Prior knowledge:
This protein has 271 residues and is an alpha/beta fold. α6 packs parallel to α7. The longest helix has 14 residues. It has an eight-stranded parallel beta sheet. α5 links the parallel β4 and β5. The protein is globular. The chain has nine helices and eight strands. The protein has a single domain, classed as TIM Barrel (Alpha-Beta Barrel).
Amino acid sequence: xxxxxxxxxxxxxxxxxxxxxxxxxxxxxxxxxxxxxxxxxxxxxxxxxxxxxxxxxxxxxxxxxxxxxxxxxxxxxxxxxxxxxxxxxxxxxxxxxxxxxxxxxxxxxxxxxxxxxxxxxxxxxxxxxxxxxxxxxxxxxxxxxxxxxxxxxxxxxxxxxxxxxxxxxxxxxxxxxxxxxxxxxxxxxxxxxxxxxxxxxxxxxxxxxxxxxxxxxxxxxxxxxxxxxxxxxxxxxxxxxxxxxxxxxxxxxxxxxxxxxxxxxxxxxxx
Length: 271
């Protein structure tokens, strides 16, 4: 798998290591990792920002944004897609297509065309999921190995459909095998709604599942989808300021960073 630090063929989109500059001094803040981060990632879900909105988002939140996912298959219908991707790349924010787009190519038996698409837009990251389609897990791992030859692969485990239950042992086994196949991080599915996968239908964390996963998989290798504030708070309290969180709304990035630093009441006494 390409290395974040060492592979010179795809390094153009990785930001130089930076230390965040605070506007004023405050002692006893949690230590936050510096970008390019291996932990403490914030993955943002872009569900259709315009170019102007993308520029505003980058101006306001780039230092705290580690990845941007162009949600589901929205890249196909996003106006001025090439220009939008360039904005993120110029800001050194890795951007990638949502896993549903990859699934749409797979089900049409056009996976090689998907790889060509990733290369066409110069993407350094790509996501493989099977939340909408059913494919043998061995086949999914083959796709991971093939795609990891051209970019850094993020995989997603879990179904997007309510009522489809995956045995807890199977969650762990799939995550382990996908990491072995070459993924950089594995996403724990929750959808943008935060009501499936690692969450109950009411949005509360599936504590037993999460505990069993992290008994076997280092939490640093997992991006926990956490679109709701209560879910973000849960994982920050559980794993600390440098937990990997995904499906964050663009307008919630600064609020999330405040949670990570114990600067909101929800985590004020927890970090």
